[in-house]
Amino acid sequence: MYVLAESNVLRVGAYCETxxxxxxxxxxxxxxxxEMETRCPVCGxxxxxxxxxxxxxxxxxxxxxxxxKCSYCNxxxxxxxxxxxxxxxxxxxxxxxxxxxxxxxxxxxxxxxxILELGGEIKPGPAAQGFITTIEGVxxxxxDIAEFLCxxxxxxxxTCKEKFKWLDDAVNGKVKFTFxxxxxxxxxxxxxxxKKPLIKPLEETS
Length: 206
What we know:
This protein is 19% helix and 38% strand. The chain is an alpha+beta fold. The strands form four sheets. The protein has a five-stranded antiparallel β-sheet, with no helix packed on it. Strands 3-4-5-6 form a four-stranded antiparallel β-sheet, covered by helices on one side. Helix 2 (135-151) packs antiparallel against helix 3 (157-171).
């Protein structure tokens, strides 16, 4: 099950907020550190103006929030990444109980998220965007993806029922699973009060 469209929603349970809303709400705490104009991944014109802001986020530390809008097609761009970049890395977090779903996820736009037991992944595309959420929030993203794929007929009915059942059980803490972020830029992270994730070089596959 592969992602076809990504959301820039920050999901914490039923609470949703966009990166742009965070930027507006915390304007006094943000420090603008740069801006640039580049080619829009949607319309292809050179009209996407992106602004970068430094923000010291509780529990996470310093992050860079990037927001932008294309002056031609109004495409909106959002990304988030930690300031202290690390080497190419694979972040592995074992979800073993309900509280583990509250772990925070900072996923940069270049990173891939995988849930091994589900057999699903969220891969970055040309218009990929970063987000901050929880592991529970990522499960809801996978549910949105599954709904789209199943409604479009790309996945057979039996598989759809199995995936939805698994996701419902995962959201309710009834199954254990392995949550993985593969980040070629080393600017994503998983933060939990319960335990630390296992971090390996990205080239390691075991």
